[in-house]
Amino acid sequence: MNRWREVLFERIRRAHREGVSGREPATRFKVSRSTVKQALESPVPPKRKPLPPRPGVLEPVKGC
Fold first, then answer.
1. How many whole angstroms separate alpha carbon 29 and alpha carbon 39?
2. What distance in Å separates the CA atoms of residue 50 and residue 13, rounded to the nearest whole number?
3. What is the mean pLDDT of residues 41-58?
4. 0.85 exceeded by the pTM?
C-alpha cells in the first residue's frame, strides 16, 4: 500500500482531533472533501482498483 497515503490519512485525523473541521483539512492538504471523509471514517486508505489491461500501440499492425 502507498505509505504516503497512510501518512496523509494520519495527518488528516490528527488535524481533526486538534479541532480543525469543515473544509479546512481539504484545503490544507490539497485533497477533496470526500478524501477527508474517508480518512475520518477508516484508519487505513482503501486499496486502489486495478486498471484493466490496455491493448498495445502496435496491436492493430500485428494482425496484418
1. 12
2. 27
3. 88
4. no
